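Hi,

Apologies if this is the wrong queue. I'm a grad student, and the batch job for Mechanosensing system component YbdG from Oligella urethralis DNF00040 produced an output file that my downstream script rejects. I'm not sure whether the problem is my script or the file. Here is the sequence I used:
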Amino acid sequence: MRDSILGVLESIGLADNTLVVKIVFLLCILTITVVYYFTAKTLVDRIFRRFLQKTKGSFLPILGQSKTLHYVYLTTVIMVFRALSELLLESQDDFLRLIMMVARVLILIFSALSIASFVDVLGRMARRNHKLDALPVQGFQQTFKLVIAVITIILIISVLMGQSPGIVISGFGAMTAVLMLVFQSPIMGFVAGIQLSANNMLRVGDWLEMPKYNADGDVVEIGLTTVKVQNFDKTVTTIPTSALISDSFKNWRGMQESGGRRIKRQVCIDINSIRFIDAEELQKMSGSRRLAQYLVAKSKEISEHNKELAAEGMARFLDQRHLTNIGTFRAYIVAYLKQHPRIHQHMTIMVRQMAATAEGVPLEVYCFTNTTAWGEYETIQSDIFDHIFAVAHVFGLRIFQAPSGYDWRCVAEATLKQAEEHVE
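Support response: The file is valid. Your script probably expects a header line. Output copied below for reference.
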């Protein structure tokens, strides 16, 4: 081909002009390369579309959406350009050496981009496979791409310097401390990602709570150096991956997988409203479906105990046992929860009395809903406490509430009324 082109140039008297010869050869090389690019791209695209129509998998569609094939085209184009340059240009020409060097660098760059793009394709495939949710796919993906970038840079430097890659790597020995400082975060993030995966501590989709970084939401990405958390207010918090190993955090995945979410809230009872239940109240409460069994068993237990005391000559009121309104109220709440259709009956159900405080005697409701959906959970919890607040007065109990402006106004009006009556 070279001789044919030189023959044509010699016939028109341009063979002795070195610059014209180089320009002509370069135009020929570019023309053939462009024709090759469009021809190869058209053929491959047609074949790819045929396979795409026949296949039912998701790999080819994802590959088609990526830039992998585009970078492969460009890599082969540079290879063709390099081969034609060696064929047409003189081997001792400085222009050829420059072209060959640039071609090698471009081949390395586009090859690295092709591999990195293919890694992205594999990453997207892995994220669609829920069996791999426990693995930090994004972190592995970024680590592999970082390794590709480092290797590519070393090879490019060796091409520009005209030295072997081994010599270039040996030259980095003196820069070890600097390199360790530069790649400190990626190295620590990679190690942390492996630990998170090996110990199954965190995965994409988990509800993570980490007050130190104001993170409270769903994990959307576990990267090489950072973990992205979309908070429930739709803001995004980024946390260093290594911080998830060195610091503590709360993962709510256990709650989500258990199928139940805990309710743990207190109701403060006014101590002045606590008293024994009289016979009339006991008779009324015995008609309750929720309290009947408890009252029968408790009354029998108390009656037997009091008979034993009477036999011993200790029949005084203070020595005897009696039902209290707060104890009966507590038993009523337990029965109410055990019959509630939205409370998980295979998990802990408990109503316990806490130590008295300045706000009264706290009764803590401790149970689990049979759903983990946030909206449903809040609705169930609200319904339960609505009922508790509303039914407390039936037991003669008052829910504690700090005096408000309305309360003080009522007191002032009552005091003023008494004063007026006294004056009259």
